[in-house]
Amino acid sequence: MIIQLNKDISESQKNAIIKKLESIRYKSNEVRTQAGTYLVGIGKAVFDIREIGHMPGINDIHIVSDHYKLVSRKWKVNPSIIDLGDDVRVGEGQFTVMAGPCSIEGEENIRLTIDHLAKNNIWIMRGGVYKPRSSPYSFRGLGLDGLKLWHKLARKAGIRIITEVMQVSQIEPMYDYVDIYQVGARNTQNFNLLDELGRVDKPVMIKRGISGTIDELLYSAEYVFSAGNEKLILCERGIRTYETASRNTLDLNAIPILKEKTHLPVIADPSHGIGIRDFVEPMALASVMAGADGVMLEIHPEPEKAFSDGQQTVYFREAENMYEKLRKAYELLNSWR
Ligand code: PEP
Ligand code: MN
After folding, report:
1. Is residue 321 part of a domain?
2. pLDDT at position 113, please?
3. Which bound ligand lies closest to the C-alpha atom of 99?
4. How confident is the model at residue 25 (pLDDT cuts 50, 70, 90)?
5. Are 17 and 132 in a shared domain?
6. What is the residue with the minimal CA distance to atom 8 of ligand 1?
7. How many other CB atoms are found less than 10 A from the CB of residue 260?
8. 162 shares its domain with 278
9. What letter does residue 184 receive in the DSSP assignment?
10. Which of 85, 95, 110, 292 has its CB 3.0 to 4.6 Å from that of 287, i.e. a possible disulfide?
11. Looking at the structure, do residues 321 and 205 belong to the same domain, yes or no?
12. Is the CB of 43 under 6 A from ligand 1?
C-alpha cells in the first residue's frame, strides 16, 4: 500500500498511522522525495482501506498489488514527466532524442556534436566520461576534466548532459556538471549506487541490465525512488540472448510492458540494442511505434574514428534523416491514439 501524506502532517498523526499499520502487521517505510512524503506499507493482511484512509494527515491511499510499489502505475495513473528546464522535458507527451558519441573524446568532438544537436533541435547530449569497458586496455573515458569541459560548452548552447556514473564516489564531484545521471547496464543492480542516487536531487536514467528482467529494472528504479529521488527514467538497451548476429537483442516487448507497469518515462537505446549502425534507424523507428517516450542514439562526425562503439554509431547526416523520420513516426502514432 502507498499512503500519500499531507505536507503539513504532524509527527503524532504520522505515528498514529504507523501504529495502525503495525496493528494489521504492515511494516511501514517512510519515503521523502522532491514531490512529497509517502508511507509504503508492506504486508499481506487483507484489510478495509477505509479503516486507514480516514486518518488525519493522509492525502490519499492506494492498494498496490505489485511487489515494486512507488514506480508502479497502479497508484499513479498520470505519467511522470522529468522537467529539465526551458521546455526540455522527458516523458509522455513529447518525444525525446538524446544523442552524442559513445565516449566524450575532446573539445572538437564536443563542439561538433553540440552544433549538430542544436541545429536539429535536440537538447540532450549523451556521452560517457567514465566508460565501462570489457577490456581494461580500451579507452576508459576523459573523467571529470572531460565532463567539466563538456559542461562549459554545452551550457553555452543550452544543451543538457546525460552521462554515466559508475560508482558512488563519482556522484558528488559530477553533480554540478550533469543534468541526468545514467546508470549503465553493468550497474543496474549496484544497489549501493542506486541508494546513493536516491539521495540526490537530479534525474537518473537507469538502463536495463544486460541479463536483467523487466521486473528487475523496475526494482532498481524502486531503490532510487524509495531512497528519496523520484526523478527517474528507464531505458531498454537490449539484453543478452543466444543470438549472435547482433550485439544484443533490443527487447521491443519491454517498451509497452514497461509503459503499462510504470508511470516512469521509457527510453529505447537501439544503438546498444542492436549494435549495428545500419540497423539503428529501423530499430529506433520500431521503438517509437512500440510506445517509447524517446530514444538514445550514438552519433559521431566520423564513426570509424570513434574511440568506442564506432560500429553502431551513426553519421551526422544519416542521423539528421533519422530525427525527421522519428518525429514523423511519433506524430503518426499519436494521430492514431
Ligand atoms: C553507454 O550508453 O555508453 C553504455 C555503456 O551503455 P550500456 O550501459 O547500456 O552498455
Ligand atoms: Mn556505447
Report:
1. yes
2. 98
3. 1
4. very high
5. no
6. 184
7. 9
8. yes
9. P
10. 292
11. yes
12. no
Task: Report H helices in 227-276.
Answer: 254-261, 270-274
Q: Domain range for residue 39?
A: 2-62
Give SS3 for 67.
coil
pLDDT value, residue 229: 98
Same domain, 39 and 177: no
Q: Which residue has the cell 560500429?
A: 311
Instruction: Give the number of the atom of ligand 1 that is nearest the alpha carbon of residue 103.
Output: 3
In the chain, the largest separation of any two C-alpha atoms, in whole Å, equals 65
- Span 325-334, average pLDDT: 98
Q: Can you give the CATH number for the domain in which 51 is found?
A: 3.30.70
Are residues 133 and 162 located together in one domain of the fold? yes
| Residue 69 near residue 230 (C-beta atoms within 8 A) | no
> pLDDT tens digit string along 26-36?
999 999 999 99
Flag whether 322 is in a domain.
Answer: yes
Q: What is the pLDDT of residues 225-244, one digit of tens each?
A: 999 999 999 999 999 999 99
User: In total, how many domains does the chain have?
Assistant: 2
CA of 308 to the centre of ligand 2 (A): 6
* Domain match, 230 and 273 both: yes
Query: Which residue's CA is minimally distant from atom 3 of ligand 1?
Result: 102
Nearest CA to ligand 1 atom 1: 102
> 185 in ligand 1 pocket by Cβ < 6 Å?
yes
- Answer whether 233's CB lies under 8 Å from 71's CB: no
- 22 and 100, same domain (yes or no): no
pLDDT number for residue 86? 96
Per-position b or e across 217-241, b if 16+ CB within 10 A of its CB: bbbbbbbbbbbbbbbbbbbbbbbee
| CATH number of the domain that residue 307 is part of | 3.20.20.70
Give how far Cα 4 sits from Cα of 11, 35, 42, 65, 200, Å. 15, 10, 15, 16, 21
Q: Can you give the pLDDT at residue 87?
A: 96
β pairing state of 180-183 and 160-164: parallel
Of 209, 250, 217, the C-alpha closest to 234 is 217
**Across the chain, how many H-helices and E-strands are there?**
11, 15
Give per-residue pLDDT as tens, 144-187.
Answer: 999 999 999 999 999 999 999 999 999 999 999 999 999 999 99
